[in-house]
Amino acid sequence: MTAKSAAAAARATVYGYPRQGQGRELKKAIEGYWKGRVDADALRATATELRRTNWRQLAEAGIHEVPTGDFSYYDHVLDTSVMVGAIPERHRAAVEADALDGYFAMARGTQDAAPLEMTKWFDTNYHYLVPELGPDTVFTADSTQQVAALGQALALGLTARPVLVGPVTYLLLAKPAPGVAADFDPLTLLDRLLPVYAQVLTDLRTAGAEWVQLDEPALVQDRTPAELNAAARAYRDLGGRTDRPKLLVASYFDRLGDALPVLAKAPVEGLALDFTEAAAANLDALAAVGGLPGKRLVAGVVNRRNIWVNDLEKSLATLGTLLGLADRVDVAASCSLLHVPLDATAERDIEPQILRWLAFARQKTAEIVTLAKGLGGGTDTIAAELAANRADLASRAGSALTHDPAVRARTAAVTATDGRRSQPYPERAAAQRAHLQLPLLPTTTIGSFPQTPELRTARADLRAGRIDSAGYEERIRAEISEVISFQEKTGLDVLVHGEAERNDMVQYFAEQLTGYLATQHGWVQSYGTRYVRPPILAGDISRPEAMTVRWTTYAQSLTAKPVKGMLTGPVTMLAWSFVRDDQPLADTARQVALALRDEVNDLEAAGTSVIQVDEPALRETLPLRACDHPEYLAWATEAFRLTTAGVRPDTQIHTHMCYAEFGDIVQAIDDLDADVISLEAARSHMQVARELAGHGYPREAGPGVYDIHSPRVPGADEAAALLRRGLEAIPAERLWVNPDCGLKTRAWPETRASLENLVTAARTVRTELSAS
Q1: For the chain, first and last CA: distance in Å?
Q2: Label partner for 68 (CA 20 to 30 A): which of 32, 407, 717, 759?
Q3: What is the pLDDT of residues 642-689, one digit of tens each?
Q4: For residue 397, how far is the Cα from the chain centroid?
Q5: Per the confidence metrics, is the pTM higher than 0.85?
Q6: CA-to-CA distance for 311 and 296, rounded, in angstroms?
């Protein structure tokens, strides 16, 4: 096909779409099902209607080929485990008794069976359920869900393409099941898994699929020759089968690198590549292999998960260079639109001109369609869209919101000394022990306590004007008082105020900093039914006034025990926002760090002796390629130290991280120079404690003994067993006892019971230590 005919054939498509619905109908239906207010048939009906609505919106916007299989009740990786029959033994009976309840049991756990481990999906804030595999795993095909979704789309008269997690990525994301040797490599199961994928492909072909997309984002990471050979074998096998649909192998999040030649040679009919942040690298690599003659190329030229409008002319130029490198060039976003909110037009509180800078899923869909039209018909066919786009880009670039000379001058004046504590850790630790007088194995929580329906109602009433600020603050004071009283009665050693006043750990601060925009309806799935509204970091950042001091000081006035000041760190403020793309991330991080530094110093001046600066996104934001790690970790750790280094030696600085592979960044954790770190460890069976010990981590640590992402209540014996395992790696004088994460999403009954058991476990192990 000539470049001209390839352009004329250009089609618009997407890899996936937000699942929740405009009013988060899916979240409400699922949580209603868990509480017994919604039955299974009603839940399925809600899901069916949401899929139908999404597909119709896409088709009406001009998307030529809609995705199926991207919708999920909880997580698409968990769906894949169901599809291939990889059900943990502890959940098998539940799944066989009731497939839907068993599915949710794997995700959330039950009182008798722990859930699957949960961690971050590459460098996003989406969490997936980690497959558990072992040498005895037997895979069996179950394509029921995938075939049903395809059938629903085809019945609507749509062209549909099922989307599956690819077999190589699935195995590379998996971990050894409990009881399996830690060095077991799930990739050794590839030959056992491929026939199951082949059966699913056959089932989808029989059901009417012309194309099936197999997502292989793991191949954009650094891969060994053995792993690349496994990818080659997988697609030689699947591509060589005759009773199958056409195969589109998709990569995203970064450059494909050494895996591109492997996939280009594979007997598959198409590749999908990221041409946003990885544009230059993927273009060069594609040219180096001689393009994709006779194959389909899906070009992801609309940004993968940020919300700024696309530079249409720049994207058209990229698409133009691709013509002639493939038999057919189609236009898409660079990954699933799952990672952005649904519709910017729903926002009523953002200035109309600024709103034109933003593109959520529906607006990105329109951009994709416009680009496909321009690629196929020439720029004259989209002249009006191009002119409007140029005006929007110019408006943003020239806005006073994006540039504050005072902020830039302060940032430019930062020196290396500003990021160093006044004394080394051993001297600080001695000063903190003398000041705080904490027992061995001190107990604490991560920060938040349950956000009760009464709190959410009070917040909604304040927004609606049904109560005034005085009435709202009275409710917050009562909640803080209750939280402090409970912690004292339970016997916790370092208390928190519970964060009753906070809507979200990032949004709360963003709403008080200059340069940020907040949305009302910009919900994005984090995991399961947990949705967040990432704020939009649009301009230079500063802190007009103190943000947390008043409530922390009030909580401290209620108790003689230390109350932690609670802040969200600079890297997480960036990672869990839609960050500006018009300056280096390091510069933005430094601005946020200086604003937070002012808050840390004010907390200390108000008498706060323990200050926690959470950085759960430090690992999440780690670039996917190792060669990019040093630059990122240098500015990320510098930003944390800049936030925290201005305090006295006897002020104890904590940080917190959760649900990530911490072993990759242990040196960076060390480089933060925090006095205490608390980390998720319950689902991963204290793996992080062993990783810290292997590194020789010299400071205090609290690997979690209570998995807060499950409704089950861990018994005191279970928490004590985890503590003993932690003590095998971390000396008692440096070990803290705490949950995995904040308690915002939990209910009070399970929170009370779990924390009482946690304190009992700590006392039990203290007694054992004193007797030994």
Answers
A1: 78
A2: 32
A3: 999 999 999 999 999 986 678 889 999 999 999 999 998 887 788 889
A4: 29
A5: yes
A6: 24
